[in-house]
Design goal:
The structure holds two protein chains of two kinds.
Chain A (H helix, E strand, L loop, with lengths): L1 H12 L2 H20 L3 H30 L1 H8 L5 H31 L3 H27 L3 H29 L6 H9 L2 H13 L7 H11 L1 H28 L3
Chain B lengths: L1 H16 L4 E4 L8 H7 L5 E4 L3 E2 L4 E3 L4 E4 L4 E3 L7 E3 L5 E3 L2 E3 L10 E6 L5 E3 L2 E3 L3 E6 L5 E3 L2 E3 L12 E4 L5 E3 L2 E3 L5 E4 L5 E3 L2 E3 L6 E4 L5 E3 L2 E3 L4 E8 L2 E3 L2 E3 L7 E14 L2 E3 L3 E6 L2 E6 L2 E3 L3 E5 L7 E3 L2 E3 L3 E4 L13 E2 L22 H8 L10 H12 L21
Parallel strand pairs in B: 1-2, 2-5, 3-6, 4-7, 5-8, 6-9, 7-10, 8-11, 9-12, 10-13, 11-14, 12-15, 13-16, 14-17, 15-18, 16-19, 17-20, 18-21, 19-22, 20-23, 21-24, 22-25, 23-26, 24-27, 25-28, 26-28, 27-29, 28-30, 28-31, 29-32, 30-33, 31-34, 32-35, 33-36, 35-37
């Protein structure tokens, strides 16, 4: 398993797209911090990148990578190797290399320019989002046999988590305005990794505005140290669940 | 000329003969109790109290004397009594540590209470665990300075106000430090007074509570982390200069809450990290100038009931929302402020942006209607909504805009 992981890791890290992605993130972070007057405004601009670009690149790149290495996978499956091991090492290799380039591209500039609580949370959330969306890509790739279909499915999932879900929540909020929705909102946040990580950053970034009533409910739940641990645990369970779903399908899949 | 000389000489002689005495109180002196010393004193005397613990129930000062504590003698109210009652003019109370006043829901028991007098000075005292701290009732021309008031009650019912002034005139409240009370400073029907350089923090309700008190000024005070911030209501002619309003957090907590205020000035203040910096309701003809609004949830919330207010030359930086409102009617002016969210341009380089800035974002209107929606803030969708609204305003008030937004922050 180690060998395959190592092979996948090195293969991806040498990939031009991943190198380009790393440089792109790095340049954007640098320019954001140098152009804005305050580091908090820079963090705000980076937040949008972390919540939109990072999941998108992770999900699309991983899906394409899996489809492109279909022959490699077929070859390895014919060897005396457990499918579980093979799939896990593919996942580790993808997640490892993409989190590495995220850390180089965004993590280091943030640590240099804005080493605050908000900055740390943003790095942690970005790393977790990368891993979650790699897992989602694996699931999409294993469900659809056709490459175009698989990539389409992956993009749809990304669109759902970053845009449609929020629209749905906003719709529900206004339809059920008369009801107390605070607890529902806490549950809803847990159902979308992008929302959950955004809220974790928000709790540090817009503290004053969030001290209102609804904010207080969230703050009690997610704002404390235990809340932070709960949120990270929820994000981890996203990784584990989605990966496990894809693994189950992969094990039964007729290649 | 000769007459004047005789009068002066006469005054001098009477001054010498009626020389004010100093009566000392303490274990080693003739008087062991302050009450006895005051009984023996005449107008103009000084009662000097040595360090020690004095349990004298209620001390009534009915003569114009100076009562001074040496090295903070402790006056203990044993959780039952009003400790000092001032019922004469020209009284000074200075340098005492006053603790454990009574608590009552029927009577406003205070540590020091001024009953309808004038020219009273209360200076440099330490008040701990008192119900009401310093209470001025129907008094005028009094000075309350450099006192330190600390209360420890847990609920609003069990606690009184720090400096409570009712129906008074020409008071000076200077350099006091107030914490843990219900309202730090409470003004009702107090006119022509000044509140200067006080620090009011961690009080249960308001740092400063102000009602029906016309033509007062409060200058260079710090109001931090109070339950509901500062409230100024039903008043006209208030001058608020160079104060700090910080960290007043909560849905109903404001840096300043202005209700039914008119003809007032808010100049040179700093509003930092409040849920709402200024909340205005029914306010009219107020000049808000040269203030700094930084890292607030809402820098200002202006209800549609406000009229003819001028908001100009302020800095708005790092606020989640700059301005919030509840209707489409706008009768106030917002010109010539600096907004850090302004993304317009300045082609003619006159340091004024060429296109107007709209400080009310669509999302602040949505949150106003549905506070739970705050949780979706800064998501992709809400930024899309805000963008499209900026290009084509539909929900946000059309007239609420800064026609001459500044490109650079002002030096405040």
């Amino acid at each position: 398993m180690k060998k395959i992981t190592k092979y996948v890791l090195v293969d991806i890290l040498r990939n031009k797209i991943v190198i380009g992605y790393t440089i792109f993130l790095f340049l954007i972070s640098l320019s954001v911090f140098n152009l804005e007057d305050s580091s908090s405004k820079g963090l705000l601009s980076l937040l949008n990148i972390i919540l939109i670009i990072v999941p998108l690149v992770s999900v699309i790149f991983s899906t394409i990578y899996i489809y492109n290495s279909a022959e490699f996978i077929e070859l390895l499956v014919s060897q005396p190797l457990k499918r579980k091991q093979l799939w896990a090492s593919l996942f580790t290799g993808l997640a490892g290399s993409l989190t590495f380039s995220f850390f180089i591209g965004i993590g280091i500039p943030v640590l240099l320019y804005a080493a605050s609580a908000t900055g740390y949370i943003m790095i942690i959330m970005g790393l977790l989002l990368t891993v979650i969306f790699v897992a989602i890509a694996l699931l999409a790739a294993v469900i659809a046999r056709d490459k175009a279909k698989g990539i389409g499915f992956a993009i749809f999932l990304w669109l759902y988590f970053s845009l449609l879900f929020d629209g749905l929540i906003l719709f529900i909020l206004f339809q059920f305005q008369e009801y107390p929705l605070e607890k529902f909102m806490v549950v809803a946040a847990a159902l979308n990794p992008i929302d959950l990580s955004r809220i974790m950053v928000l709790l540090k970034m817009d503290t004053s505005a969030l001290m209102g009533y609804t904010g207080a409910v969230f703050r009690d739940f997610f704002g404390s140290n235990t809340g932070f641990i709960i949120a990270v645990a929820i994000l981890f369970s996203w990784v584990v669940t989605v990966f496990w779903l894809s693994l189950r399908r992969f094990q039964k899949k007729d290649l | 000329m000769k007459n004047i000389f005789y009068i002066l000489a006469g005054l001098l002689i009477t001054g010498i003969t009626s020389h004010a005495r100093t009566i000392r109180v303490g274990k080693q002196f003739q008087f062991h109790s302050i009450g006895q010393a005051i009984a023996a004193a005449v107008n103009g005397d000084t009662v000097l109290v040595e360090n020690g613990l004095y349990r004298e129930k209620n001390i009534v000062i009915g003569k114009s004397i100076v009562l001074i504590g040496n090295n903070f003698p402790v006056l203990d109210g044993e959780h039952q009594y009003e400790i000092i009652s001032i019922k004469a003019n020209y009284v000074t109370v200075k340098g005492f540590k006053i603790v454990h006043s009574g608590v009552s829901s029927l009577v406003d028991i205070a540590a020091i209470r001024i009953y309808g007098c004038h020219d009273v000075t209360i200076s440099g005292n330490i008040l701990e665990d008192t119900f009401f701290g310093i209470y001025s009732q129907s008094s005028f021309n009094c000075l309350i300075e450099n006192n330190k008031l600390t209360a420890t009650a847990k609920t609003e019912q069990e606690s009184g106000n720090g400096i409570h002034c009712w129906k008074s005139d020409s008071l000076q409240i200077i350099g006091n430090n107030i914490t843990g009370h219900r309202d730090g400073i409470y003004f009702e029907f107090v006119t022509n007074s000044v509140i200067w350089r006080n620090e009011s923090h961690k009080n249960m309700r308001y740092g400063l509570h102000f009602m029906f008190s016309n033509n007062d000024s409060y200058i260079s005070n710090v109001f931090r982390n109070n339950g509901a911030g500062v409230s100024v209501m039903f008043t006209h002619g208030v001058k608020m200069f160079n104060n700090y309003f910080e960290e007043n957090w909560g849905d109903a907590s404001y840096g300043i809450f202005l209700k039914e205020i008119s003809d007032s000035y808010i100049i040179g203040n700093k509003f930092l990290r409040n849920t709402s910096g200024i909340f205005m309701e029914g306010a009219s003809r107020i000049l808000v100038e040269k203030n700094e609004f930084k890292d607030n949830g809402w820098a200002m919330k202006i209800q549609a009931s406000c009229l003819d207010n001028v908001i100009t030359k302020n800095n708005f930086e790092g606020n989640t929302f700059d301005v919030g409102t509840n209707g489409s009617l706008v009768l106030n002016s917002f010109d010539r402020n600096y907004w850090d969210k302004y993304d317009g341009y300045d082609l003619n380089k006159d340091k004024v942006g060429d296109i107007p800035y709209r400080p009310v974002s669509l999302y602040s209107m949505i949150v106003e209607k549905n506070p739970a929606a705050m949780m979706l803030y800064r998501s992709f969708m809400t930024s899309l909504l805000d963008r499209s609204e900026k290009i084509l305003p539909t929900l946000t008030p059309e007239n609420l805009k800064d026609n001459f937004p500044l490109m650079k922050p002002l030096h405040l």
